[in-house]
Each structure stands twice: as C-alpha cells, then as structure tokens.
C-alpha cells in the first residue's frame, strides 16, 4: 500500500478521487493500491521556551538569549487526533512507501517533513509536485514523481526560516518587553515591514505644504499650461510662486495673439504587462478591486483548490516553461465563452501557433512554480462567487493580453507662445491599440488635439489662474506596501529592476499578506479604507529598534540567503550562526540601550495581568478640561471624553473619527491644542470645531473632507 499525505482535506479528496480511493476511513480514503490521508495545515510545531526548560516560564532578562542547540518539536494539541491517524498509517506494516502531496512550496515541504520526523517514520518517500488541481494535472504529477531527497534544499530552507523566526522573535520580543515594560512583538520580517510604514508616517508628518499657482491659456480649440523652459525640475516647471506673478502672466496674454512655436510627435510603445505572480496579482487586485492582500490570497486559493480554475497561486514567477506552450494553447481555446473572442484575436501564426517571446516562456526564470494562469478546463464562471469571478477575470484577461501586440501611440507635445510666455499642451494619437483591446473598460479617453503645425496662429481667450498646494506622500496601501516588501523597501515599477531584486525581499509571496495582517492585529498598524498607516505604538517601536532588525534592506538579505539554501547554494550552518549572533545582539541592545519610549497604558505588563491592563486602559489627560462641564478629560484606547459621562456629559472625540477623509489620528497633543485654541493647522490640513462638529480640511481645499459630530459649546 502507498500512503499519500496531502496538506488539506479538500486536496486529499481530489487526489483520492483521481486515484480511485473511495473507501472511507477516519481521516483517510482508501483504494486498491493507494491510501490518501491529510494534514490540516501544520500538525507539528516548534516547542515553546518553557517546554524546553521550565525556567523560561518566567520572563527574566538574565535568562536571555535563549539559544538551544536544537529546537525540539511537538504535536499541536488541537489537531493531535489527525496526527495520530497519519502516524499510524505511515508506519503501518502494509505501507511500502509514502508520497508527499502537501502544497508544492517551502511551507508545504515543512509540514510533511515535520510530521514524518515526529512520527519517527523510516519509509521511502516520493514527492508529488503539481501546479494545478485538475484531474489531468494530478494524473500527470503521479506519472512524474521524484524522490523526496531532491527537495532536501527546500526543506532545509523551510527549517532555517522556522527556527530563525523562533530565535529572533522569542529573544527580541522578551528582551524589549522586559526593557520597556510593555508587551512588544518583534519579528525578523514583521519589524522591517513596520519600518516601511513608519518611514512613510514620518514623511507625511514632516511634510510642509507649499502653495503655488498655475496659468492655463485657452486658445479656442485647445488649451495649454504656462511653463518655464529654464526650470531644472520638469515637474515644477509650471509652478508660479506667487499669485501676483500668475495674475501678471494671465493679464499679459489674455486677448493677445498666440503662435504655435513647435509640434513634436514621439513614437512610443507599451509592451503587454507580464503574467501574474502572487504579489503582482495582490497589488493589482488592491488597485482595481480594493481587495486586501489577504483577501486576494484566500480568493486565489479558493479558485485553485475548490474550483480548479487557476494554477498554483503562491508563486513568485511571472513566466511559463517552454514545455507548457501546448497546454497554454489548449487553455486559451477552453476559456469561458466571454473570453473566446479576445483569444481568437491573438495574432496566431500559421498552423495555430502562439506568438511566443522570452517575456512569457522562459525556463531560466522559473522557480518552484510558473506564473498564475487559468487551467485548461473551462471554469464555471456563472457558479463562482462574485469576488472569485472578478479575480478570475483579471487572470484570464492577462493570459490573453500577453500574446497581443504592443500598444503604440505618438506622444504629441505642442508649445504655444504669446507675449513671450510659453504654454505646453500634451496629447496622444493611438496608432495600434494592441493589448489594450483586451481591457475595453480601462480605456482612457484622450483629449483630441486639432491638426496643428508650426506657425499656426490663435488668440488667447481666457487665461485662468489656479491656486494649488503641494501634497504629502500618500499613505501606503496593500499594493504599495507589497511592492516595498517585494523589493526590500524600494517601490520599484521597473520590470528589470524588480527581477534583479527577486529573492531579496521581505517574506515570500505566500507570507506577505499574513505579515501585513499581523501588524494590524498587534496594533502596530491600522487600515482605513485602502490606506495602511503606522500607529503611535508602531512608531514608538521603530524609534527604539536597532537598524539590524528594522532595516528592510538588511533583513532582505536573510530572505535571499533562504532562497539560496533552497537551491543548495548556501550552507545552513552559516545562516543559523548569523541568526544566533543577531538574536544575541538584539538582547544586548535592549538591555543596554539608553533609548526611551512610552507605549499605551493598556499594553503595560503587570502581575495582575488583564485586571491591571483594564484599569489602566482609561487615564486622565493632565490639565485638560471638558469644554462643556469643566471636568477632567480622559483617554481610553478609542477616544477622548469627559470623565463625567456617568453624570450625563457626552463630550467625546473619537481618535479615528477623521481618518476616512485623510485626517490624522487624534492624540493627546492635538486634543490639548484643539481645546485651547479651537483650531490646529498641520502639515496635511486644518482641524477645527465648526457648528457642533470637529472637521478636517486638507490643505488647498475649502471644504472639509472629514468630520464627526460632537456636543460642543465653547464656554
């Protein structure tokens, strides 16, 4: 009997169906030659420090760092019964060999190997490595099994990742918690990701808005914006520092003759976007659909496992292997009906051959898995949930678009002169729409320019002066944060540069969504709409964390090392020695640092635990009085309010009440200033009490973008 171990029950059932295993048992399905069982994710994990030595039950700085020679493993109590089922089956007398059928990636490899080791199994193992869950793919996978030893590098990488996170997380979290008397979570990947958010937080907080003016001249059948041809920064060439100067320019040209000084047309070409890997799919789904990274991953996993509609989603490759050309043709012909017209318009070569290129098919760019594409079975689009339909639509259209011609156009620039002032007009003329035909709903209407030639005359009608204000950097979204994580803190749009950075980002495509959600869960970051921002707690942590753990670039090197271990290009011993040195350094740093930081009272540690945190969650704001009744104002985790609320005073300011409109989180300093002055001007706008509301008006705008109603009467 051959025992197959899958990662999840749903995957196990699919494999069992293909293998003809129909006899049901407790935690398995049995057939004539095969028996299929499954884990439910991780069944075995690393032990906690106090399970290694009881002295670690109490957190003490003198016991740090914790550096065991090896970290023992244990069976997770919640799923112990299923582990027992697998252990019995894989060690059974009738079992000849095993097939590892967990997910074909680093974590899947670790799940199986930990079970195998914990069960003390010695049976030979083959590896099933598939990229889609269709019956055909499963059959092909079983026909191409490989010895498990060929994946030893992947297992070593997974083990190093797991133990590195344990060593850094356990030691740093304990050391910084003890030093700063606050429950602090520090991680090898989590903390540098937080540093990216904190950097943007400071960029926004430190931004100083500047007013400037622009002048737009109307030439009748087109318009142009004034610019300074001598400006060194092209982006600032149209900015006029004062209204007086702008009014002077407008007055000088209004009603005056104008002449076309030059017309240039530059031929440009936009190549089709590449196929999706998980990170690029998450980024685009965030921009187009508003999905979080976690939602995209879960939806893609459902399309892969439940609906068999797409290939393995947890991939970091945007290419297909050359031996998939035939299957790709088959997939294009079997797409759902609404995509077939687009597929037919691919410029097929004689004999129905695809127009292939190394941007699509490239064996050298394939890692563990190829790019995400639909499977060669027609997806039941009408049965898919709404979110799954939207994501499948993106993946299907992308597969078609990559085979279309480039989008070609002429970028037209017209320079018009009047009274010695120059005005710039930009437009474009599309010559070949190309791959953009696959995205009709994304079509951008470009303003049509008249046929202009050098020397053509016009008269300036209106000359409009407009006040503008420089804007701070936008808060991160899932899309921009994923880009920064993928490229170790750098938001790279360039395709070639991104490829060069591959492997040296923060986390992996499969773990980045979970890291973002973890930051929010522990209170280091918050999500408002699509924006993700560092909280005060997160900012405080990065202020005291050393560069060695907070630097995205430095930590990205660890991930590159793990990638090299998986490819058998690096020694694991050397990597783990570096992790042990880092763990020791972080403990010493926490113990000896002179840095100070304050954290929210509810995060304080104490012998009375939850009871102490509850009582500390509400605290008075020294010297600040309620504007309604004169009692003290107090603060809790969510708001500032009157301490006399039990007596009927309802004065309340919610900390996040202005965030939806781009306003800041309220803190003690802001509330103090507001109650003293009634208005606070900041780098992003103005907060003021108006008509019973607290309102936020961004710089450069006249109307509030966010407000919250309060009971407020100034005494």
Task: Explain what this protein looks like in three dimensions.
With 715 residues, the protein is an alpha+beta fold. It folds into five domains: 2-144, 3-Layer(aba) Sandwich (Rossmann fold); 161-205 and 474-592, Topoisomerase I, domain 2, CATH 1.10.460.10; 211-271 and 407-469, Topoisomerase I, domain 3; 286-401, Topoisomerase I, domain 4, CATH 1.10.290.10; 618-709, no CATH class. Helix content is 36%, strand content 19%. It has 22 helices and 27 strands. The strands form six sheets. Strands 2-3-4-1-7-8-9 form a seven-stranded mixed beta sheet, sandwiched between helices. The model is unreliable at 602-616 (pLDDT under 50).
Q: What is the residue-mean pLDDT, rounded to a whole number?
A: 90
What share of the residues does DSSP label as strand, in percent?
Answer: 15-25%
Strand order of the largest sheet: 2-3-4-1-7-8-9
Q: What distance lies between the first and last C-alpha atoms, to the nearest angstrom?
A: 85 Å
- Secondary-structure class: alpha+beta
CATH class term of the largest domain: Mainly Alpha
CATH fold type of the largest domain: Topoisomerase I, domain 2
Integer count of domains? 5
Q: Into which percent range does the helicity of residues fall?
A: 25-40%
What is the CATH homologous superfamily assignment of the largest domain?
Answer: Topoisomerase I, domain 2
Per DSSP, the total helix count is: 22
Counted beta strands: 27
Unreliable runs: 602-616
General form = globular
Largest sheet: 7 strands, mixed
The radius of gyration is 31 Å
